[in-house]
Design brief:
single chain, mainly alpha, disordered C terminus, globular, 77% helix
């Protein structure tokens, strides 16, 4: 129980802590909107948890997976637009893309935490080990998040900071490929490599590396493709957006 609870925090709660660290390292003035987005994500997660009985049977039993797919794709689009705004406006404005990004990532991760927590806390298995595991997991999440924030904030240039965030978001969104395989939308392809002898997916280090940059010991071709697509998309999106300025900007220049 103790180990399971600690792993739960690393797998489902640590991503939210790391997201907070990475976005604050990009623009430190967004605390108020960040708090609002986190609260919104938690509220949506609680609503999703309370609706699982209705949601899960939808789409031939893949309703919950489709919800997470949509949330991650929306987060991806919002991430690209936020990165463009940071580059164009030098981090002075954030707007709705930042809010949507944090809300969707929080929703996807928090709902799993709620499922586990309520399942165990409401049963007779809830004991001291679960409480101790919760404290340890929370301490680990806070410690890693603080260390990451200090390390990223110390970087002098902006591009490595944004590269770190891009890799993190890519690791989150790439799970879309896994979800689509689970509901048989994508056929399970052969694995490109196997590093489970070094770091297994279900180990503590495997969970930590998965949270940091989407580590998979046996990734499929679809997973790697989605990962690379998401990681590189902010650059491509920024170049395309620069060639086609908003209509309002064109109107002001005339």
């Amino acid at each position: 129980m103790l180990i399971n609870t600690v792993i739960l925090f690393i797998r489902d709660t640590l991503p939210v802590f790391l997201l907070v660290s990475l976005v604050l390292a990009q623009a430190s003035h967004i605390t108020r909107m960040l708090t609002l987005a986190l609260i919104s994500g938690l509220i949506l997660a609680m609503l999703t948890y309370s609706s699982l009985g209705t949601l899960s049977p939808m789409f031939n039993g893949g309703g919950f997976e489709w919800l997470k797919v949509v949330a991650l794709v929306v987060a991806w689009g919002a991430f690209c637009e936020w990165m463009r705004r940071l580059s164009a406006m030098h981090g002075t404005q954030t707007g709705w893309p930042f809010y949507i990004l944090v809300t969707m990532i929080t929703l996807v991760n928090a709902v799993h935490f709620l499922i586990y927590s309520f399942a165990y806390w409401s049963s007779q298995q809830a004991d001291m080990a679960l409480m101790v595991g919760t404290v340890i997991g929370l301490g680990i999440s806070c410690s890693v998040a603080v260390l990451l924030f200090v390390a990223v904030s110390a970087m002098q240039r902006q591009w490595p900071k944004r590269a770190m965030l891009s890799v993190f978001v890519a690791g989150q969104v790439a799970s879309v490929a896994v979800l689509l395989e689970q509901i048989n939308v994508l056929t399970e392809s052969s694995r490109l490599w196997d590093t489970s002898n070094w770091v297994a997916d279900d180990s503590e280090y495997g969970h930590l590396l998965n949270v940091l940059f989407g580590y998979e010991a046996t990734p499929s071709a679809a997973y790697v493709l989605v990962y690379l697509l998401v990681a590189l998309s902010p650059v491509v999106y920024g170049l395309i957006a620069a060639r086609f300025p908003p209509v309002s900007s064109v109107a002001r220049s005339l």
